[in-house]
Amino acid sequence: YDNTTTRLEAFEGGVRSLVRLEDVGPLGGPSPVKPWERIEFVYDDNGDLEFRYEVRDNGVTNLQAYEGGVLRQKTLTDLGPMGQSSAEKSWERIEFQYDETGALEFKYELYDDGVTVLRSYEGGQLRMVEQTDLGPSGSPSSARNWEQIVTTFDANGDREFRYELRDNGVTIETEYEAGVRRVVTQEDRDQFGGTSSVMAWDSIVTFYDAQGQLSARETIFDNGDVNSFYSNAGDRALRLHYDGDGSHSWLVRETLYDAHG
Questions:
Q1: 122, 123, 168, 118: which is closest to 147 by C-alpha?
Q2: Which residues of 226-250 are buried (b: 16+ CB within 10 A; e: fewer)?
Q3: Are 129 and 109 in contact (CB under 8 A)?
Q4: Would you tell me how many other CB atoms lie within 10 Å of the CB of residue 41?
Q5: Of 69, 75, 40, 34, which is closest to residue 54 (Cα–Cα)?
Q6: Beta strands in 36-179 (DSSP E)
Q7: Strand duo 125-132 + 116-122: pairing
């Protein structure tokens, strides 16, 4: 073409098998005419599209795979000349997988800092998101203050459950009803299920009402003390503190609050 873009078509038995578009400058480098350097289309024996491969001027590549003319997989990569992370994007690779109808099934993202995000879909509806932040040996990474976060969604797309494992070993589980947070359980345990010294408490369980307002919280401390807190429509109502190890001069301490908390 007049703008130096080239187009090559190949045929087998009269059926088109390949189309290659190139937009390269005089010295073989990227041309400013198009935002891409090369696009290739590969077709099967029936002439249906099998693959589409694109190299952008910024080095990002886009590979798409088809079955029966339906997109089944797409992979985006952003790597430098030596296969290392490029500064063009904040991610190294993004993969999409589709079912036979073309509905999205999975999306996987690998970021430059090593964080990964895997999204799972059913009928095109997001059902689960799993995030991981692990180093090359599978140990915690310093990119985030957590190792893993898993979030599940119901058929309506409302959040159902969220699990978080933090770098210090603390776990946080959040349960939802119709997308409203109802229960949050935090635990500070060692790898054998025993008491950990990371926090001064062993577990904290917090309950919320149907409107998402705080209704009760129970904290069990490492020394055995138990602190139970109750509220009314989000306002403080009652607090009970139990002496679990006999270190106090009292067995239980009760605190009542008025209507204003």
A1: 168
A2: ebbbbbeeeebbebebbbeeeeeee
A3: no
A4: 19
A5: 40
A6: 36-43, 49-56, 61-67, 70-77, 91-98, 104-111, 116-122, 125-132, 146-153, 159-166, 171-177
A7: antiparallel
In the block, residue with structure tokens 């699990």: 163
User: How far apart, in Å, are the Cα atoms of 163 and each of 131, 190, 222?
Assistant: 10, 17, 23
Neighbouring CB atoms inside 10 A of 142's CB total: 10
Q: Is residue 214 a contact partner of residue 206, using CB atoms and an 8 Å limit?
A: yes
Burial group, residue 23, by CB count within 10 angstroms (0-12, 13-18, 19+):
buried
Beta bridge partners of 172: 164, 186
In order, the DSSP letters of 146-176 are EEEEEEEE-TTS-EEEEEEEETTS-EEEEEE
Residue 118 sits at the vertex; the CA angle it makes with 117 and 120, to the nearest 5 degrees, is 145
**pTM, full prediction:** 0.85
Q: Which helix (H) or strand (E) is 232 found in, with range?
A: strand 226-232
- List per-residue pLDDT tens for the chain, 261 residues long: 777 789 999 999 999 999 999 997 766 666 778 889 999 999 999 999 999 999 998 889 999 999 998 999 999 999 766 556 667 789 999 999 999 999 999 999 999 888 999 999 998 899 999 999 976 666 666 788 999 999 999 999 999 999 999 989 899 999 999 999 999 999 998 766 666 778 999 999 999 999 999 999 999 999 999 999 999 888 889 999 999 988 889 999 999 998 877
Output the six-digit token pair for 245. Answer: 């190890």
**CA–CA distance, 107 with 58 (Å, rounded to integer):** 23
